[in-house]
Write a structure and sequence with these properties.
It is a single chain. This protein is an alpha+beta fold. Helix content is about 45%, strand content about 20%. The protein contains 13 helices and 10 strands. The model has no long low-confidence stretch (mean pLDDT about 90).
Length: about 300
């Protein structure tokens, strides 16, 4: 939704207005898009509950629109996306612009196909990615990899051996965890019946991206496990990563959660979302060595809030 400039412009215009806005006034405020295009996008926004449609009694056939609380919360997600866009490698982008549309689309497409998860674990070439993600065709992988490279989400491996061209994630992609998790939080609370629930791949990708850029105190040493709890009916599953820290530096981060770590932090998807945003009502279980667990937990939250502009 936030990758489409017209959606963003409609929501922003309605948020800034006072009361319902008539369709002609709304079109005028966002640059007179074609009426058929405007009606199509407005219909979708109404279906998702982001705006509400009013029929004016005084003028038969005349309608107006007003933003809903759900739409306002989506714009709050947009603010997090905007902070991330302003740190783009090739220069600042504004949400709602053509450039931002390309960046957001490349990020979402890379995430949905598993490209982000695969590359967050280690640098890979196109042929290797084709083996790792066999459910996506080679041409599709190539297109999406190219789109991610063009907007600065990935780059050629810095320590490549020269024989195989591999790509690795950029720090900008690592900091995309903030807008991605903000978006997931909005989906889980506002339209849970219209979007697939987050799963193992999502949890692993988020941790694999975020952990390597954590800023930890130099006196932190040990192994810490970060996990998300997934409930599927009566069954409970866990997914996440185990990280090894030495003198405050993350030496390794792997998508395994077995073994006996020195410290850990575990919680459900919405628990992590609420906790990272310093909201009440979360149930994150933090245990083990408090010097490790608290340092990692504080660094996770600080990194998220900084990337969100908090």
């Amino acid at each position: 939704m936030l990758a489409v400039p017209l959606n963003v412009n409609v929501l922003r215009t309605l948020e800034e207005g006072v009361g319902p806005t008539a369709l002609p006034d709304l079109r005028r405020a966002i640059g007179h898009p074609p009426v058929t295009t405007m009606r199509s996008y407005l219909r979708r926004l109404v279906e998702l509950g982001l705006i509400r449609r009013h029929r004016e009694d005084d003028f038969p056939g005349s309608v107006s629109y007003v933003i809903t609380p759900r739409g306002e919360r989506l714009l709050a997600v947009g603010e997090v996306v905007q902070v991330w866009l302003r740190s783009a490698p090739e220069g600042e982008m504004e949400i709602g612009s053509t450039a931002s549309k390309s960046a957001i689309k490349a990020l979402v497409d890379g995430w949905s196909t598993g490209l982000v998860r695969a590359l967050a674990a280690r640098p890979l070439g196109l042929t290797e990615l084709n083996r790792v993600i066999p459910q996506v065709s080679y041409p599709t992988l190539e297109r999406r990899l190219t789109a991610m490279r063009q907007v600065g989400l990935i780059e050629p491996e810095r320590q490549g051996n020269g024989r195989v061209t591999r790509c690795e994630v950029t720090d900008w992609l690592r900091h995309a965890v903030a807008p991605l998790t903000a978006g997931v939080g909005w989906e889980c609370t506002c339209i849970p019946d219209q979007t697939p629930a987050p799963g193992r791949i999502d949890a692993e990708a988020a941790f694999l991206l975020a952990v390597p850029v954590l800023e930890l105190p130099a006196d932190v040493h040990g192994v810490c496990r970060l996990a998300v709890e997934f409930r599927r009916g009566s069954e409970i599953d866990f997914a996440g990563v185990t990280m090894r820290v030495s003198e405050g530096r993350v030496e390794s981060c792997v998508s395994r959660i077995d073994g006996k770590p020195d410290a850990w932090a575990t919680g459900g998807v919405l628990d992590w979302f609420r906790w990272m945003r310093e909201l009440d009502g979360h149930r994150i279980d933090i245990g083990g060595d408090p010097s490790i667990a608290n340092a990692v937990a504080d660094a996770m939250r600080a990194g998220f809030l900084a990337s969100s502009g908090k």
